[in-house]
Amino acid sequence: MADLPARPVLLTGASGALGRVLAKGLAAEGWALRLTDIAPFPDPLPPGASFTEADLTDGVEILRLAEGCGTILHFGGVSVERPFAEVLAPNFLGLYYIYEAARRERARVVFASSNHTIGFYERDVRLDQDVQFRPDGYYGVSKAYGELMGRMYWDKHGVENVNLRIGGSRPKVNDARTLSIWLTYADLTRLVIRATLAPRVGTLVIWGASNNSRGFWGRDGRDVIGWKPEDSADPFIPEQAGNVSGNPIEERYQGGFFCTIGYSRTEPSPREIFPPK
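Predicted structure:
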């Protein structure tokens, strides 16, 4: 019998692509899940799960849903680059309510952060977990804010949190950039399981990518939770290595297309040099 969380687990964003994957995978492990999203859940409800349609900005409802939970898997909110006004309420205010619920329940937060927190680093720079944020848009800023909120809630309130800087989690590799950032659904599910079940985490950052030889990212907190990716994008190299956009901004930076949205520099940005560690 697999290990089970001692208390129910709240999953926000349950109706989204990754939320649906996690709902199915975690239910198969026998977890007691409370699912929520602003949109209806599109699949048959997994065994051991309940679903409540709710808005992240409804703080009272979030507190109610989190009551008695030991972990909040926060995958809700705007998940792509959008104007600031659209990102503000769910990704900033909504995240505050998540952390307030976690503080009240003494729950751990597993936060779906993003590679877009560091999107304006060049692709040939290998990054460790302690690199400075360089978000590539308002969405990336909201995810950097989420990680900083987790840092503060750990230091001030002892709320444990694991920040998953997810690369590209999708069914298959569909371009050259994804060869570096791919996170298979199976590796994502195993990552969330370990982030939830690890005895003690404090506050951690983990790069959410499979074992890709062309990966951009290095050191992180994965050893603390005992996670090691089992899959790889490498089998797709022959098919996708030449599949590039042709846009010099998109191809220069780790954030890819997101870096080009609203981009208005009239000259190339200066290359930043990072000393070896």
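Summary: The first helix runs from residue 17 to 28.
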